[in-house]
Amino acid sequence: MVIPATPGIKPYATSQKMNETETLTATPEGLARAAAILGAQGLVAFPTETVYGLGGDARSDLAVARIFDAKGRPRFNPLIVHVPDMASARTFAVFDARAKAVAAAFWPGPLTLVLPLRADAGLSPLVTAELNTVAIRIPAHPVAQALLRAFGGPLAAPSANPSGRVSPTRAAHVIDGLSGRIDAVIDGGSCAVGVESTILGLVEEPALLRPGGIATEALEAMLGPLATGGNAEKPNAPGQLASHYAPGAAVRLNAQTRLPDEVRLGFGPGDADLNLSAKADLIEAAANLFHMLREADVLAGRGGRIAIAPIPEQGLGRAINDRLRRAAAPRG
Ligand code: TXA
Ligand code: MG
Fold first, then answer.
1. Are residues 209 and 292 in the same domain?
2. With the CA atoms of 30, 152, 63 and 109 taken in that order, what torsion angle do they form, in degrees rounded to the nearest 10?
3. Which of 48, 51, 76, 80 to mutate to test the pocket of ligand 1 (most atoms within 8 A of CB)?
């Protein structure tokens, strides 16, 4: 596919005959270029406050199919639809009083709501994997907001990494995993939250489908105890696959000590090659998690081993431990 060039910018092609992935700046020119690529059903990775997303037009079967192809993602995993505001969100999903209250409290931000899909939503059925529900998120990141407004439509966006690998929190991580497979990445620096959004199902009883950037406790304070959905054998959220977010090296969790030849990823004071947070701050640890897993992987080398210090199971620690358990799971 050849997409008309913005004046002064080289034309490029997507699909099988992919040129180099363009790195765009978060400037009006870069955003205009990104919007033109998305308008031609191309793929653009962009920063959100959680992780970088791989965006494509959520109304276009072709764009959405390209996302699955670029990631090598199993088709049964539906994607999150990103919108700039509530007015847009309400054109795709049905909000009951509960959903409106949660949205008012936590959006824009690192929360995704799974809600009944509107019959007239007009989304590609590939986005929802033909379910009658849809996952929606209003990201807070100014570059994500600016891109959604420049594009003027909903963006389907999974994390911008090959399926099953560590999620990207910097533009360079996106290039590492997907260079040549996507049209462009907008460089917006490091992601502040560093783990993916919390996914809350509000179709029936409130259900925690994936722990993430909003602490479970904050949602439970509003909704009462949450059911926990999900089953690793039959995932309805890819974060629920047993082996996911996996680095190349073997991972040992709750490591109190370092064995010979292990790279130690610490938390809190003490001896470590890399430390998620020397001051034992879970928010700082979440922001460092995926970047440091990549660094530890490089330090460990081929066939190497990473030992990770215990992380408290509270606040963002739940999301961190969820990702670490999957990183340590036997590889399928
Ligand atoms: O922070 C994030 O959520 C990032 C950024 C880019 O927004 N996105 C992200 O997307 O993590 P992804 O594709 O890696 O995860 C989307 C999750 C999956 O676990 C998927 O199964 C779930 O959302 N999901 C999507 N639609 C759903 C639905 N209708 N019902 C249940 N789960 C759904
Ligand atoms: Mg992902």
1. no
2. 80
3. 80
Residues 80 and 223 grouped into a single domain: yes
311 CA to middle of ligand 1, Å?
A: 24
Residue type, 132: N
pLDDT at 235: 46
Task: Indicate if 60 and 203 belong to the same structural domain.
Answer: yes
d(CA 103, CA 89): 10
Give the pLDDT mean for 270-280: 95
Q: What is the pLDDT of residues 186-213, one digit of tens each?
A: 999 999 999 999 999 999 999 999 999 9
Boundaries of domain holding 67 = 2-228
Which ligand has an atom closest to residue 239 CA?
1
Number of domains in the chain: 2
Q: What is the spatial distance between Cα 85 and Cα 107, in angstroms, rounded to a whole number?
A: 8
Report the amino acid identity of residue 141. H
The whole-model pTM stands at 0.83
Residue nearest to atom 12 of ligand 1 (CA): 158
Alpha-carbon span 293 to 265, nearest angstrom = 8
